[in-house]
Amino acid sequence: MAIGLHRTGTVIMTAGFIMVIAFGGLVFSTVSALQQIGFLLFVGVAIDSFINCVIVMPAILIICGECNYWPRSYEKENKTQLLTEKLTTQHDNII
Fold first, then answer.
1. Can you tell me the distance from the alpha carbon of 29 to that of 38, in angstroms, rounded to the nearest whole number?
2. Model-level pTM?
3. In 15-66, which ranges are E strands?
């Protein structure tokens, strides 16, 4: 789970940031309907990409634990070992 969040987190956050900027531009329109739609889209995308995808979904995945999907070919020891190896190599690459 941590590897998937690490790999996709920056893409999701960047896409959310771009959409927030784009929808935020609608707020400065002179048409009141566009202002309202822009504000709603701005708030909805901001909540989804910055709160839901960063805090809520990882928390739910941690709470579910073994109920989450894992391919059947992985055993628990193998899964833990792979996760530990990936995280240590990523940590070493950062430093």
1. 9
2. 0.60
3. none
